[in-house]
Design goal:
2 domains, Rossmann fold, elongated, 4-stranded antiparallel sheet, 13 strands, Methionyl-tRNA Fmet Formyltransferase, Chain A, domain 2, single chain
């Protein structure tokens, strides 16, 4: 079996390194051109890993560029991974390998198709989420499933802790599927459309706290939008407060340096925050 890998972020690079740690080999790496990588936050370079593993490296501005599709076809691949890449693969890429194109989505598909999977898992108060390896098709996160890794969402889970779990789950799933994938032992299964759901993308403005919200709703919103996301925020008499951490007020007293946010059914205490003048 011959494999290629498309990525431009640390998560994808970590998956590449996991494949190498398992004794696997990749036959093509694809990433952003250097000028794009320099302008985009969080981007990584694949030059070193390509050189060390003696893997051909192709750089592009868009995964669907004709020269990139030609490079993928020329690599004579069975499977192409696309992990950590924001551009949607079009027909030319999807048809460029013998078996297909694989992606990982950070939910238990068919639940949670779309974006902002980490915040939504907390906002929706899920008990578990996960990561799904699936074959890309013409839809959005709708292709056949080849494997899943479950993640327990604990009480008090934050975006910071859940994001770390999602990264670990990507690597664990890669460890579980790599050998069966190379031996053609994985049987893709069609997604159950009756159980599907779509989660919309979120903007920084979606982190605004309304005084009509409940304490539990605000608690989930704060935990869901903390770092690495932009944070929940509320306008108060002292300024615009971005809240990174807080807790429901349980007693008549509270720790010093907290800011009390009065809500529909009680008080939420901002314990870690930043204040900006209105």
């Amino acid at each position: 079996m011959r494999f290629g890998f498309v990525t431009c972020v640390q998560l994808g690079l970590s998956c590449i390194q996991q494949i190498h740690d398992l004794g696997g080999r990749l036959d093509l790496l694809v990433t952003l051109e250097d000028d794009l990588a320099r302008r985009k936050s969080g981007r990584v370079y694949l030059d070193e890993v390509a050189a060390v593993s003696d893997t051909p490296l192709h750089k592009c501005h868009n995964i669907n560029d004709p020269l990139t599709v030609e490079a993928i076809r020329a690599a004579d691949l069975d499977w192409l991974f696309i992990i950590g890449w924001s551009q949607i693969a079009r027909d030319g890429v999807l048809d460029s390998t013998r078996r297909g194109v694989l992606g990982m989505h950070p939910t238990l598909l068919p639940q949670g198709r779309g974006r902002a999977s980490v915040p939504w898992a907390i906002i929706k108060a899920l008990d578990e989420t996960g990561v799904t390896l699936f074959q890309l098709d013409r839809g959005i996160d709708t292709g056949p499933i080849l494997g899943q890794e479950r993640i327990l969402v604990t009480p008090g889970e934050t975006a910071t802790t859940l994001y770390a779990k999602v990264i670990d789950a990507h690597l664990s799933l890669m460890r579980h599927v790599w050998i069966p994938l190379t031996e053609d032992l994985l049987d893709p299964r069609k997604q159950d459309e009756s159980a599907s759901s779509e989660w919309p993308g979120r903007l920084p403005s979606d982190g605004e706290i309304s005084r009509t919200m409940s304490v539990s709703e605000v608690d989930r919103l704060v935990r869901a939008t903390t770092r690495p996301y932009p944070g929940a925020f509320v306008a108060t008499e002292v300024g615009l407060i971005t809240i990174w951490k807080g807790m429901p007020k349980a007693t008549s007293t509270h720790p010093p340096d907290c800011i009390a946010i009065e809500l529909a059914d009680g008080t939420f205490l901002a314990t870690h925050y930043e204040v900006r003048a209105l």
